[in-house]
Queue: 4 jobs
Job 1
Amino acid sequence: MPQLQQATVRNSLLKALSPADFALLRPHLEPMTTQLREGLIDANQPIQELYFPEVGFASVVTACTEGQIEVGLIGREGLVGAAPVLLGSDRTPQQSFIQMSGEVLRISALELRAAVRKSSKLQDVLLRYVHTLMVQISMTVYAHAALNLEGRLARWLLMCHDRIDGDELVLTHEFLSMMLGVQRAGVTLALQNLEGAGRIKGRRKRVQILDRSKLEQLVGGSYGVAEAEYARLIGGA
Amino acid sequence: MPQLQQATVRNSLLKALSPADFALLRPHLEPMTTQLREGLIDANQPIQELYFPEVGFASVVTACTEGQIEVGLIGREGLVGAAPVLLGSDRTPQQSFIQMSGEVLRISALELRAAVRKSSKLQDVLLRYVHTLMVQISMTVYAHAALNLEGRLARWLLMCHDRIDGDELVLTHEFLSMMLGVQRAGVTLALQNLEGAGRIKGRRKRVQILDRSKLEQLVGGSYGVAEAEYARLIGGA
DNA sequence: AAATTATGGTGCGATAGCGAACAATGGGAT
DNA sequence: ATCCCATTGTTCGCTATCGCACCATAATTT
């Protein structure tokens, strides 16, 4: 297997590292394909590995009494498992799994911790990423508190769109309903509204993003804040 | 003014520090009384100071288009401003202000950063605290997504109760309604329900906690997770 | 003591989303 | 080509909460 080149990785967190920091991680990055719903981080279990998504993305959810609620989305801009491990906990009550299949670069928690100890610059970048994740989660609170289903759906579509190539998301209404914590029929109606307004185009198992700016009108500012923090602190790709 | 003693501070994050780490911070801690609604951290402004609450607590809110929504609560267990500063951002899109007046120990961001650079053990403790804060915010997402007003109110009361001495909270329905992102009349009804079930006793501008376990029944597991992480990672006080 | 303001209590129509059905449809399997 | 079933579309009554308005009561000021 050819060594990974920083210029060819698609994860923008890895891209943003200094060449020296990337070299620290490179020997320990293992490419891996991911399947829909594949678990990456289990709740309250020691975290053995972290994952830099290259294609596809993962959800971070809180699993509570009934059903799970998504709190964050991590794609090629991030690192799944970063928050607990970088903050010094070997586990977390949250859970992460693949939401859209693709590829990740896996690294053992041990090696990541060692690399971070060697390079404080590396630690700094990753901690700044954790900050953007915290902002994202905070905006998710806002979205649930202030937006109706249609608005939350619009926000979710925008965030997914950022993390894929092209304009077409492959997912079912059922799936969306779980992530947003609402019933499936409600998703169908909300999607129809979005489609009627020319914001998206729905096909079976597919949602095509037609007009991002029209979607952004619905989210009451809950989209874009975390993204701006990322651009400011990590890199403006 | 007498030097602060670690044994007599009430902030449990300061208490949890090693004596050497506390000594690093001590010269820079300035006691300060706080007023209701006093701003501690402004949104998108350089953070000059951080605050260890001693008495009272602060809210972290996301200010968006319309109204602000509370995402977290920081009292004598924590450090206001910890998340952005420890994660390497000099500012944050969120805002923090005093929710219940009292006392804080103020420290300049400059001095805190310097101390953290000198002692990685100090940094580790503070980062673990940031982790617990992240968990708290995640559970706030869950609360908004899965609980009705009564449940969210119960959770909020429990969290406040942890951060005060005694059983009586001084606050108005109006205030609660802003924090929970609902209308004032709804808070009145929810409080009446809680009171009818013997969980609390309401007086004008006052809410007395009568039965914590009955309150915990309403929150669907959204209370306690962050607190358990704190006990596990910082100290079981 | 009277006036004023802040706070809490209550009622009513409107709406969003739930829960639970059932119908229609498209695409993969055989 | 046909069948089957996952997926999507649609409907209906129900409940929580909103938005608004109005009144009651306590605290504060004069």
Note: The interface with chain A takes residues 60, 62, 64-67, 69, 71, 83-84, 86-89, 92-94, 124, 127-128, 130-131, 133-135, 137-142, 144-146, 181, 220-222, 225, 228-229, 233 of chain B (CB under 8 Å).
Job 2
Amino acid sequence: MKSQDDILAIVAALKSAYPEAICSLDYQKDYELLFSTRLAAQCTDERVNQVTPTLFSRFPTLEALAQADVSEVEEIIHSTGFFRAKARDIVAASQMLLEVYGGKVPSTMEELLKLPGVGRKTANLILGDIFHAPGAVVADTHCIRISGRLGLTDGTKEPPKVEQQLRAQLPPEESNDFCHRLVLHGRAVCMARKPDCANCTLRPWCDFYQPQD
DNA sequence: ATCCCGAGGG
DNA sequence: CCCTCTGGAT
């Protein structure tokens, strides 16, 4: 594992390389981030952003989404993949948000996980970006891969373990932005197939760095 | 063939 | 732990 100094150095290097820790999903309302994140399962954010303007203008309110014809939602979101489950979840979650939570996105992990189609990744993103909860760790595919390569985790790919191990090391007020920056770094430099180690600002602390790449 | 800011079920 | 759900890009 890393020393606390290494952790802080990695946090600082990422902050310097990616000054704004932004979510690349486009959204206006809280529930739009929730559903955009559901759509982002095994799909690029870029493609999600191509369908959500159509989805959220065709069904501009939570009430409209709750009453939407699932097959029409399926058509709109088809290109994001897993479209049957995603469409079913979006309509069902809209109904639950209205009926159980008064139309407001809940602010606790426990309640978020009760919503259909909301798992730990989506819940943590909401907690971090909407409610600014300290200690939120979004263990998505980029976070899991890069944390493993760096040696911040023991190599597990199980999201709850990655969450736990990162949360134990990161300053709580930094964890959410840190995860956003890992995503940006995962796209630009530390790609899954062919990581660009030569141009990586994190290589002084990375267990994975191999000069021949 | 592998990957993309996953979730749910066995 | 495993598997399935699905389309698009590389």
Note: The longest helix of chain A spans residues 83-101.
Job 3
Amino acid sequence: MGRSPCCDGEAGVKKGPWTPEEDKLLRGRFTDDEEKLIIHLHSLLGNKWSSIATKLPGRTDNEIKNYWNTHLRKKLLGMGIDPVTHRPRTDLSLLAGLPGLLAAAGNFGGAGSATGAWDMNALRLQADAAKFQLLQGLVRALTTAAVPAPAPGMDNLMALLAASSGGQSGMNNGGQHGVDQSMLLQQCQWDGMNNLPALTNSAPASGMHNISGMFDGFGAGDGLSSTELGCHGGASGSNVTVDAVAPPRPMVANDQECNNNGGGGVSCEQTPASSPFDGLESLNLMDDLNTDGKCHG
DNA sequence: AACCGAAGCAACCGCCCACGA
DNA sequence: ATCGTGGGCGGTTGCTTCGGT
């Protein structure tokens, strides 16, 4: 005997898997726009889930919090963005995939579908994040006790950092040279800095050669190369100047214009090729370091 | 078919802050 | 000014479901 299946035979009841059309209509799922808005709001408000929830009609704080922890956090991590600070991740684990990312970023700019553009933008962000990590590792090597003793090749950069620590901020100075060391250090002290693997763990420091060796194979289309990074040899006190490092933009989604349309929906416009490193585009440290030991501005 | 791991979700717990006595 | 209380909020945990082997 047994009872018959609940819905069999009932008029108008469809059984079976959801169709794509039904999926779209199904309530509860976060839309792309909502996703972007959450990221944007999180960059501004942090873990103020209740505040974020007030901007998302029909969503509870717990709902958003869960969605963040299970989806968006991983998504940002995958993009090389620290989901806590909305800044590039500071561990060096991304370096392994850097060449491909840089290549992808080099190809960025082509027209495509909205989805495609977003993906390419993500790739660019990853590349930029990795680029920033290179700088962090470099400065860390120069400024921490992890390096037992400055090797000859290190002297130049140590000297330039010391010489340029006069305190001028130089941020966004549009071409004026002179690095603000404290700013550089501050950049490197962003959270997670302590999680950076000591550069000397895997390979004893022996000057810039080791550091530059880390970059071998990199540089496709991004002005990065071990040669340019090397700045080997030369006398100390060389006229090395680098552009100041502007802090990365607080959050990628800041480049999105998100509006609550008042109807329970949210519309977001993503500006193309936005990057948390737009401010870092002027970072010519990599480009300015020449192989003659003198790094020109 | 059973087992295992991952993912998603709801609920619980503890902390913090505002407010009143 | 201080202490107690209640509410709100965020972090964490545990249960359930799903997919893979």
Note: Residues 49 and 62 of chain A are 7 Å apart (CA to CA).
Job 4
Amino acid sequence: MKRAPVTAQDVADYAGVSRTAVSRAFTPGASVSAETRAKVQRAAEALGYQVNHLARGLIRSESGLVALIAAEIETPYRSALLSQLAQGLLAAGKTPILIATDRSDDSVRQALQHAISYRTEAAVILSGMPDSALCDICLRNGMRLVLVNRDEARKGTLQIRLDDHEAGVTAFNTLRRAGCAALALVSSAAGTPSLAGRIAGFRHAAEAAGVTIQERSTGATSYQTGLEIGTDLLSSTTPPDGIFCVTDLLACGVLDAARCRFGLGVPADLSVIGFDDIAQAGWESYALNTFAQPTGEIAATAIDWLSDPDGETRVVQLPVRMVWRKSVRVPA
Amino acid sequence: MKRAPVTAQDVADYAGVSRTAVSRAFTPGASVSAETRAKVQRAAEALGYQVNHLARGLIRSESGLVALIAAEIETPYRSALLSQLAQGLLAAGKTPILIATDRSDDSVRQALQHAISYRTEAAVILSGMPDSALCDICLRNGMRLVLVNRDEARKGTLQIRLDDHEAGVTAFNTLRRAGCAALALVSSAAGTPSLAGRIAGFRHAAEAAGVTIQERSTGATSYQTGLEIGTDLLSSTTPPDGIFCVTDLLACGVLDAARCRFGLGVPADLSVIGFDDIAQAGWESYALNTFAQPTGEIAATAIDWLSDPDGETRVVQLPVRMVWRKSVRVPA
DNA sequence: CTGAAAGCGCTTACAG
DNA sequence: CTGAAAGCGCTTACAG
């Protein structure tokens, strides 16, 4: 019972065939007689044999591995996307490796090197941004790269992004149309490209409309930050009556500050819009108007591109859809 | 720029040493002169070389891979545990592979076979239960197994579980002490060992105290189910004033049913206790009294055992701690 | 400290 | 259809 994994040779001996035959029995479309294949299959079953993908990957130089690189994977949006990616990859016959980072660029660097070590066929990056040099090394090592919600383009990669700017504009217009007079924009200190896009969109729309808005961006992109900023905003002498939170987590915090701490009615006294459409946005306590991240589509797009042997440099911009619930006043 | 990964031979040529030297330069503690090592390091840097772990794993017969097998990985508790596990594994020098299942036993079977294919050194199972035969095959292939919150013991595995029964008892006592007269027990149709344990504890305590309780268990273990059961329970002619939900997700649903649909005050009109201590339990809208899953400890225990070369069959029962917030009335 | 050689478990031309 | 042989990229005794 020592660690003595079953090998193709064992199966060959047991079945009375060559190990070449065993190999072929496990290769779809290889030329083996049905009889031999059956014999091998029986032997494999009896011995509990599984092809060693490490060895197979080595010789075919395709490991079947795909690295998923992300920070804060316990977060609702992140885990939802990861789930889609993992399931899609598995369904496509690939095996996801999970590399948790701390969103620093150095952390992505390590993650990518890690991925190279395992000769992953690709890496899907959800957090942080690798520099060009690193990307080149990956490419040179035959690795495909897909960047999700990252901003800068990199040669040879697939970049999937949303129309964040547009969402910011829509958020502004929606709040105005709801009759909100004092608008606020809530963000975190993270400063990732997608958050920046939403902020810019909202700002531009406000400028174009000639209205001034309050802005807050401190701390992590979390519920806690939303709670703090919300409390701060609402206790001012000129509290906003319409808030766009760049993230649902932030929005939930703002909503709780409004309701639990100030006894405000939503949307009667305050309208709030979020972004991501995490599960909690649909919970009755929040019933948050938000923008849906098309996680399924993101995953599908990534996997399609990876399945295409000659996927060239590409940027895919996915449309973002507003989910209307009950946190924004309906114009009379 | 074809997929021509850099090899140790390339580095050797570039550095003007043998490929044995290259290998040694990347093996901690190997006997190489500092000079050679430096030369190799420089060459590797210039070429963007990373040791091929597939090949190294093959020859050392230790892949460095650990499979994480779980269903519903986008769920708060699950993703929190996965995050801890992934980070811990990475810190311990292991690489996590993520296999999403659908919690059916057949799905775990496939997952495990998948793991064997990659010669993972271990598999951590969070969902589903492999049968004995399968466990044996894993063991025979030199794979370690850790079962989290699974019930039955399997030879050669590490089993980590919580004192679910005790939690059920504590929930009952807490609700009684809070003065609740009509108690209900809310669960799902999942029937996993941990849920069953909590149910049993609550039931036993009730029987011992001679009080009858209402029970509901339908649907998935989700917010939605909690909302439905809560609505159903609260619209009866004899609504409960104290509810133990076997899971926080369920509890959040019940809480929302009570507040949003029946205008009930919590804990004034209704006391609720959950289990898991997911992030949302701490959000102000819920402020849920619950039992904390020691995810950090679970991960640490698993990784410790995996790091111990001769980890024998073991069952570790972790204590579960009640987190007191505001969803249970404080006895006068 | 260093390198030539054997071997990890597989696959894939190459003959038959 | 089948098997003996070479080779994927690495590591590790084995000599020197």
Note: The domain at 164-293 of chain B is CATH 3.40.50.2300 (Rossmann fold).
